[in-house]
Amino acid sequence: MTSGIGGSTAELELASIQADLSDVSPISAAERQARVEKAARLMQQKGVDAMILPAGSSLYYFTGLRWYPSERLTAAILTPDARLTYVCPEFEDSKLRETLGADADIRLWQEENDPCLLVKNFLQDAGYKTAIIALDENAPFFVFDGLRQVLPLAQIINASSITAECRMHKSVAELAIMQKVKNLTLEVQKKAAKILHEGISSFEVARFIDQAHRAYGGSASTFCIVSFGEATAMPHGPDAEQFLREGDMVLIDTGCKLHGYNSDITRSYVFGKPSQRQRDIWELEKAAQAAAFDAAQIGVPCEQVDAAARKVLAAAGFGPDYQLPGLPHRTGHGIGLDIHEWTYLVKGNQRPLAAGMCFSNEPMICIEGEFGIRLEDHFYMTEQGPRWFTGQSHAVDAPFGRG
Length: 403
Prior knowledge:
Layout: H1 10-15, H2 29-46, E1 50-54, H3 57-63, E2 75-79, E3 83-89, H4 93-100, E4 106-109, H5 115-125, E5 132-135, H6 141-150, E6 155-158, H7 160-167, H8 172-194, H9 202-215, E7 223-228, E8 249-255, E9 257-258, E10 261-262, E11 265-270, H10 276-295, H11 302-315, E12 332-334, E13 341-345, E14 358-361, E15 365-367, E16 371-373, E17 377-382, E18 385-388
Parallel strand pairs: 1-5, 3-4, 5-6
Antiparallel strand pairs: 1-2, 2-3, 7-8, 8-11, 9-10, 12-13, 14-17, 15-16, 17-18
Helix pairs in contact: 2-7, 5-6, 8-9, 10-11
GO biological process, one term: proteolysis
GO molecular function: metal ion binding; metallopeptidase activity
Protein name: Xaa-Pro dipeptidase
């Protein structure tokens, strides 16, 4: 039997969890203000008159306001003088002020009003007759359409050149939160492995993982892929329930949030004794992951990291490119407040790697009709090169070590 797999129960593993988040803190108000000021400087450089951030992760990044997307516009408007003004329904005023404080500049609209007219009036009062407006890339279409109708002379551009430029370079405080939440999910992965037994349901494992994430002090699982056997060759897993059998490859990909920041870790191993085929492909996957990590150096284009992983796989007869059997998706994605965010380790992305960038490293091998293996860990860039958040899995028959 693979080391660290099976031999326990969900009840025992949950009872052994002791949550301790005392060594990590939320992002401070001072850091959020520094983010606003950086965005304002970028706006000045690009000639942007206003940036509009409806409900979503960028709104939270700059303001600390967690808000649910809906058909009612609630948004922050940032101007190049680093001033934040908010637009929201009048009945939500007190709720916003719980986070933003009594002194926040909030412009209110009633249910029969068009909130985009409120935005127009604010911009005109601020002196912007015809404006360049940067709108968050995740804004719903109705917001874009409403602004286009009330401001027909305005140029509405994608705000990602501002938001992503801020968000993709993580601070020391962000890295500390991300380290904690990734450590947390790795511990959940270890515990999930221990509860496996022949016949266990993939749904049962996913329920346990959700409980364990919350027991450690994280959020509920933001996603959870639990695949057995041939289904492990499906990158995002099947929808149907599966039941574990001796000799199955197991793939578990999951994460949660802490102070808004995401974890995302995948482990692949065998329930029982690995075959030579499983062992060889697992080692190849680990080698491709290591090659991607080694290629990630300051100033190197992102696409070269993806190319380094694919070169290892192609040399072993997989691919090329996205062909199966092989790696059907990019090698890695940025991560932070969104599980997938700028920038990406993919062919065609020539953005140079820079300090503070954070990535998944997951050059999955998919062999349809047999199994798939994905080892996913994350790293961040320092001036001296890449650093793992969580180090590589140890071995196919000891994925979490032999201790």
